[in-house]
């Protein structure tokens, strides 16, 4: 017999009854039933009930066992007594009567419980992550992640893509976040950067004639942590294709992402015909560039009904042509208590309040706004936005560029409070026609709004002849249930257009050559039209596991302060290390 096991803890079935077996694993829990000890033994594959009574030579050893001891147990598989089957376990019809126990690894007092999935302080969970990962739900999440990545690989290969690995040590690149820098020992005073994404390399692969690339790529960004973004590093399904239009990318990737969601959705419906929503429309209707389309609420511009009305606050705002009034319908929200609750919520978000109209029995409008604008205007608003008796609508006014994010939060809040958002499905969509540029008010300059390597719609002519802030790009995102899960674009592969695009954002030609020399040179020697995207593996796994925290689907994540409590990173470097790297630490004054 094998030194440690003849079977795993998830393998025994009725067909094994009568066999002498050897199991090894962790003591999940010990139950004392009138002097008979029931030991649940657990390994990666499952759990088996083991039984020791005072007649067993292993009884005295069994009495010493505690949770999370690692043990080897020998015994005979037998049928569980009638009425004690556990239908929730694959091994639930058998148990093992133990004749011998060997302790392979004793366990001290546990800093957190492994049995059960009760809440526990996150810093303790991360410091003792090796224990946390033994817990059933987290263990299952990690294995689901493994299977999702396998599914992605299989589907990409089925679409004719080839997996390539790109360098980790590279040059700094303006991807929109801070780089992690790595000092070079061999080249004093110079630094490598960890890649924010393999953007340039995957484009260079297209220049090299490889045609269809993908990679489960590690990416590194020195960003502040949050629940839906891991600090430091994350993984993405990175994709690039040659000789393609935007439509070709959509046709290749939609079945891959849909298929992954369908495979792991646990019966929840997954949208098959993805909607395509222009960026401006997404902001206008949903107040978000990653709208949760499970919420049926669509906002509307109702400015005309308030222009010159008796509600002077909005009427005066509308004298400025850039200002608007948006309505957020609230089906079933026509109670004073709900409207007051939404008003208080808005004040908690730093707003002066949230105006509303309620429609009473008979269709009559009620509330301060209705009283100020009168029944005709109130009825016209109702006709436009389609509200009915028992409904309400909330109103946001001002410059849409400044209030669209708040309006989106209000839409989400209404959907949640009124149970309008269907939590039992996955709604996928493309967001298209992103602006190529945006105005950076902090630096008083035009900046790239998304990906600097994207092709502008209209090409070089648009870059030369259009107001930069009106240029749209061949850029697109995939959204799901309020999260951006992928981003991509058709690339700007024309050298003159590339230089012009960066020039508008304040980069001179020489700077483009210096910073992107490899790609710039490649464009001079026959560059195919190409495009691609990158899907966030972590966010996709998070959604499919039904959690809203990326630390619940990652093996060894950092905490909210970007610290690895298990390994003690970041840590101080030794004087010798700093001297070899020609680096001097200049700490901020306390």
Structure overview:
The protein is an alpha+beta fold and 590 residues long. The protein contains 18 helices and 22 strands. The chain has helices spanning 59-62, 122-127, 129-132, 136-158, 199-207, 246-264, 279-286, 303-306, 312-317, 336-348, 368-385, 400-417, 459-465, 495-504, 509-515, 517-523, 537-544, 575-581, and strands spanning 20-33, 36-43, 46-52, 70-79, 94-105, 162-163, 181-183, 191-193, 212-221, 232-242, 275-278, 300-301, 324-330, 355-359, 365-366, 392-398, 428-432, 437-440, 445-448, 475-480, 483-490, 530-536. The longest helix is centred in the first third of the chain and has 23 residues, at 136-158. The termini are far apart.
Shape: globular
Question: How would a textbook summarize the main sheet?
Answer: 8 strands, mixed
Total E-strand runs = 22
Q: Which class do the helix and strand fractions yield?
A: alpha+beta
For the largest beta sheet, what order do the strands appear in spatially?
Answer: 6-9-10-22-21-20-17-11
Unreliable stretches: none
SS strand fraction: 15-25%
Summarize the amount of helix as a percent range.
25-40%
The overall average pLDDT, rounded, is 94
Query: How much is the radius of gyration in Å?
Result: 30 Å
Secondary structure tally, helices: 18
Give the termini separation: 64 Å
């Amino acid at each position: 017999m094998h030194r440690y096991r003849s079977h795993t803890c998830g393998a025994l079935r009725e067909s094994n009854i009568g066999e002498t077996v050897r199991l090894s694993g962790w003591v999940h829990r010990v139950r004392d039933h009138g002097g008979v000890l029931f030991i649940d033994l657990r390994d990666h594959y499952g759990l088996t009930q083991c039984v020791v009574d005072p007649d067993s030579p292993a009884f005295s050893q069994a009495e010493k066992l505690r949770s999370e001891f690692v043990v080897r147990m020998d015994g005979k598989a037998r049928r569980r007594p009638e009425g004690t089957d556990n239908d929730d376990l694959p091994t639930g019809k058998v148990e093992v009567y133990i004749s011998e126990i060997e302790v392979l690894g004793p366990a001290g007092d546990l800093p957190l419980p492994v049995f059960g999935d009760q809440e526990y302080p996150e810093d303790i969970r991360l410091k003792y992550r090796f224990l946390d990962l033994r817990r059933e739900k987290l263990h299952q999440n990690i294995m689901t992640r493994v299977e999702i990545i396998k599914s992605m690989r299989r589907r990409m290969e089925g679409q004719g893509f080839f997996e390539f690995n790109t360098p980790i040590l590279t040059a700094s690149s303006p991807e929109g976040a801070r780089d992690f820098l790595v000092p070079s020992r061999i080249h004093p005073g110079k630094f490598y950067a960890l890649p924010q994404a393999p953007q340039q390399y995957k484009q260079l692969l297209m220049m090299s004639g490889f045609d269809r690339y993908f990679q489960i790529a590690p990416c590194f960004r020195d960003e502040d942590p949050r629940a839906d973004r891991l600090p430091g590093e994350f993984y993405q399904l990175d994709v690039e294709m040659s000789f393609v239009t935007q439509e070709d990318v959509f046709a290749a990737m939609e079945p891959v992402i849909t298929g992954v969601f369908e495979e792991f959705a646990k019966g929840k419906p997954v949208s098959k015909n993805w909607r395509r929503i222009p960026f401006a429309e997404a902001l206008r209707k949903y107040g978000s560039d990653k709208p949760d389309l499970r919420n049926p609420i669509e906002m509307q511009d109702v400015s005309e009904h308030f222009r010159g009305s008796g509600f002077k606050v909005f009427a005066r705002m509308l004298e400025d042509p850039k200002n608007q009034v948006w309505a957020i319908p609230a089906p079933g929200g026509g109670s004073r208590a709900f409207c007051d609750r939404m008003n208080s919520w808005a004040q908690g978000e730093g707003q002066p309040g949230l105006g509303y109209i309620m429609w009473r029995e008979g269709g009559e409008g009620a509330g301060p706004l209705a009283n100020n604008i009168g029944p005709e205007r109130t009825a016209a608003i109702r006709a436009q936005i389609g509200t009915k008796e028992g409904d309400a609508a909330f109103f946001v006014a001002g410059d849409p560029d400044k209030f669209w994010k708040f309006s989106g939060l209000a839409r989400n809040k209404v959907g949640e409070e009124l149970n309008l958002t269907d939590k039992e499905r996955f709604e996928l969509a493309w967001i298209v026609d992103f602006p190529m540029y945006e105005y950076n008010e902090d630096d008083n300059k035009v900046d790239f709004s998304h990906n600097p390597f994207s092709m502008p719609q209209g090409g070089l002519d648009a870059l030369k002849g259009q107001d930069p802030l009106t240029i749209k790009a061949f850029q697109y995102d995939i959204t799901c249930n309020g999260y951006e899960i992928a981003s991509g674009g058709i690339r700007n592969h024309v050298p003159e257009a590339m230089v012009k695009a960066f020039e508008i954002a304040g980069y001179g030609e020489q700077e483009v050559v210096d910073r992107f020399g490899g790609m710039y040179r490649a464009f001079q020697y026959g560059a195919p039209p190409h495009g691609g995207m990158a899907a966030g593996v972590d966010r996709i796994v998070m959604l499919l596991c039904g959690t809203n925290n990326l630390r619940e689907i990652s093996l060894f994540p950092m905490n909210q302060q970007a610290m690895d409590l298990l390994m003690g990173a970041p840590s101080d470097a030794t004087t010798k290390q700093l001297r070899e790297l020609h680096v001097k630490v200049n700490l901020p004054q306390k």
